[in-house]
Structure formats: C-alpha cells, structure tokens
Design goal:
22 helices, 78% helix, globular, TPR repeat, MAU2 chromatid cohesion factor homolog, chromosome partition, cell division
C-alpha cells in the first residue's frame, strides 16, 4: 500500500538493507524481529524520542506474518507506546485489545496477557469508560491466580479504581482478598501492603474502631518480617504514617509524639540505605510503596499536621518551607500527581497558619498557588479548597459579602459531608457577623 511505501521510505537506509536481507532468509524468522525491535527501541530512547519511527518499525513486524506470540507482544508494545507517548488513544486501544485477545489463546504467556489487560483498563478509565475497565480487570484477576505478581498488581489496580469512584467498601473488600492471597503464597511483605492500604481507606471512612485492630496486626507483621532493608523501612514508614493520622483523627495529639519520632528516625535510616538491585525470591514481593524521596516529603507533611493541631505554628511553618523546597526539586525530575497533592495539602495548612498569625497578604498569595495546582490534581476537590480558603481570607479582612459568595460556591460544589459541615459553620459565622441575616442563619 502507499502508506507502507511511505513508511519504508522514511526508514533509515541501513534498516532497509538489513530487513531485505532478513526477509530473504526464511530460516531465521527471529532475526528480523530482533532487528526491528532494536530499531524501535533506538528510536524510542533517542533524544528527543522519535516515536513515529518507533511505531513504523513495530508496525513493520506484521509484514512478516509473525507467529501469535510475536504478534501479541508487538500489539502490546504498539499499544503501550501509543498510550504513553501520543494522543492517538483509539489506535492504542485497538492494539491493546488485540494483544489481550490473542494472548489468551497462547499458553504460558502471562506477562503479555496481564500487562495488556492492565494498560487497557487504564486507557478505559482515561476515556471515562469505567464500566469497561471493571469487567476486564475482574476477568484478568480471575485467570491470574497462578501468577502471584500479576494477581496482586491487578487487585491493587481494581481497588484503586473503586477508591477513585468513592466505593471504599468494595475497595476494602478487594484489599482484604489480596491480603489473604498474599498470606497463602507466603508473601508477608505484600500482605502488609494490602492491610496497610485497607487501613488507609478505613481512616478515610472514619471507621476508627476497625482501624485500631488492623494497625495492631500490621505492626506485628512489619516487625517480624525479615527482608530487603529498604522495603522493611518503607513498610514501617507506611505503618507509622497511618498511626500518626489515626491519633490525629481521634484528637489524641499527645499520643503522636513517640510515633512521629520513630517516623523521623525511619526516614533518616532509609536515606542512608542504598537501593538493592537483588530481586526478591518471591514474585509476589515485587512491589514498592513509595520512592524514598516521596516518603521524606510525606513525613514533613504529617509533622506539619501534628504541629498545627498542637498549636506549634512556627514549627509548622518551618517544616512546610522545608517540604515545599524539597517538592520543587522533585517536580523538576518527576511529574507524579502525588507530588502536586502533597503540595496542595501543605499549602492548605500553611494558609491556616498565615491567617492565624495575621499574615493575610502571604495567605492570599498561597491561595493563588493552590489555584495553579488545580491543573495538576483533582480539580473539584481542589476548587472546593480554593473557595473555602478564599472565604476564610475574606472573613479575616472583614469582607463579608465576598466571604459569603466564596462559601456559597464551595457549598454548591462539595459532596464531602465533613467539608459541607465545615463550610456551613463558616457561612453561619458570616451571617452572625453581619447581624441582619437571622432568616438565612436559621
């Protein structure tokens, strides 16, 4: 076809000569495949990446009528490249669906099969086709029970999907299933990850009665597990972060100090450890919670939360400044959404500090920074926070009409019960200050 001819012309001359030689040698079908893969990888990793040429090399594989294993893997590679590096989501979806369908017909081809399912479900979610992603993940989970790594990874992925939909009950159920599966396959490390993740969701639901026994069990598992030092310390950080949050949610500020001290010691220990390249013997252990640089910021964050509740405002400001400086360095190299989330939470706390200490102009500047972050994190949640902080600022400078407008907008946008109560309380305080709003107040 003319399209194939254009792709051939665009391919480097050395590649054309090499492929002509390979095509004439029917006894070496894998040599042309490896050659095309090499060229594709070369173009993908070029600086800047030459994604169009990479895609052309991978598409050329189909000209040789490859066996099913090569065909399925090439569809997966094409789908992955198109999904991660282009906006052509429909073509990416087509290749990933073919990879998923073909790989199910090939025995002992788990990596391609489950990676295709995982990326395809991510693509469905990106296209707001959650109802297509869920059954795909459920089927992949059902047929992956003999592949511990993929079974656990897919369970985490489906639990995350339910969490994003605010279906925390289903997410907790899946994490419980994952914890039991990890126990059966002898992975206490991944069992702890599942249980700690479940504890995090229970904290989000304010089910504090269920959190305490779960954290007690997790603490025992973490202390008894012997394995990679970085993995062990990261588990301990995860556990201690949840414990600090649990105490703060329960209003037990004084109980936080020992946990916070242990947490800071863990971070110091992790910073001295070198990443170990040795893979764990159990494939179910091939997970890591957070990069240690992210954990460092998280420890700053929970320290700020504790300082705010304990009334140590200067300490809160000091640790916020350190955390934001660290975040700026990380964001130069890492565009992970969690970093923007950390930044927003830190700014929310420092804004409250500024208002309490009378630094109103600085608080307004930091509200503007949160608005800028709206482009990188969950827009509705952050917009609510922006409106709320703008309202608090307006109260502090006695602009009651503006405060009322901000709180009313936040009230209309929010679906979170506790945030709704907080906004209503502040709106009521505006009515009280105005003195002539008795009807609205009631």
């Amino acid at each position: 076809s003319s399209l194939a001819a254009r792709r051939w012309v665009q391919m480097p001359a050395r590649a054309q000569a090499f492929l002509c030689g390979m095509a004439s040698n029917v006894e070496a079908p894998e040599r042309w495949y490896l050659a095309l893969l090499g060229f594709a990888e070369h173009f993908r990793t070029s600086s800047p990446p030459k994604i169009r040429l990479c895609v052309h090399c991978l598409q050329a594989v189909f000209q040789f009528k490859p066996p099913q294993r090569i065909e399925a893997r090439t569809h997966l590679q094409l789908g992955s490249v198109l999904y991660h590096h282009t906006k052509n989501s429909e073509l990416a979806r087509s290749h990933l669906e073919k990879a998923w369908y073909i790989s199910q017909q090939v025995p002992q081809f788990e990596d391609v099969k489950f990676e295709a399912a995982s990326i395809l479900s991510e693509l469905f979610c990106q296209q707001n086709l959650v109802d297509s992603a869920k059954p795909l993940l459920r089927k992949a989970i059902q047929i992956s029970q003999q592949t511990p790594y993929w079974h656990c990874r897919l369970l985490f992925q489906l639990a995350q999907l339910h969490t994003l939909e605010k279906d925390l009950v289903s997410a907790c159920d899946l994490l419980g299933v994952g914890a039991e599966y990890a126990r059966v396959v002898g992975s206490e490390y991944t069992r702890a990850l599942f249980l700690l993740s479940k504890g995090m969701l229970l904290l989000m639901e304010r089910k504090l009665g269920e959190v305490h026994p779960l954290l007690t069990l997790c603490g025992t598992i973490v202390e008894n597990w012997q394995g990679n030092p970085i993995q062990k310390e990261s588990l301990r950080v995860f556990f201690l972060v949840l414990q600090v949050t649990h105490y703060l949610d329960a209003g037990q500020v004084k109980s936080v100090k020992p946990c916070l001290k242990q947490l800071q010691q863990c971070i110091q220990t992790i910073s001295t450890l070198h990443d170990d390249e040795i893979l764990p013997s159990n494939p179910a252990d091939l997970f890591h919670w957070l990069p240690k640089e992210h954990m460092c910021v998280l420890v700053y964050l929970v320290t700020v939360m504790h300082s705010m509740q304990a009334g140590y405002l200067e300490k809160a400001q000091k640790y916020t400044d350190k955390a934001l400086m660290q975040l700026e360095k990380l964001k130069m190299l890492d565009c992970s959404p969690i970093l923007s989330t950390f930044q927003v939470i830190l700014l929310e706390h420092i804004i409250m500090c500024r208002l309490v200490t009378g630094h109103k102009a600085t608080a307004l500047q930091e509200v503007f920074l949160i608005c800028c972050c709206c482009f990188f994190v969950y827009i509705n949640v952050i917009c609510n926070a922006c409106k709320l902080h703008h309202g608090l600022y307006c109260i502090s400078v006695n602009c009651m009409d503006n405060a009322e407008a901000q709180f009313t907008t936040a009230l209309r946008l929010t679906t979170h019960q506790e945030l709704w109560t907080y906004i209503v309380t502040n709106l009521a305080s505006v009515y009280i200050r105005e003195g002539n709003r008795h009807q609205e107040f009631v």
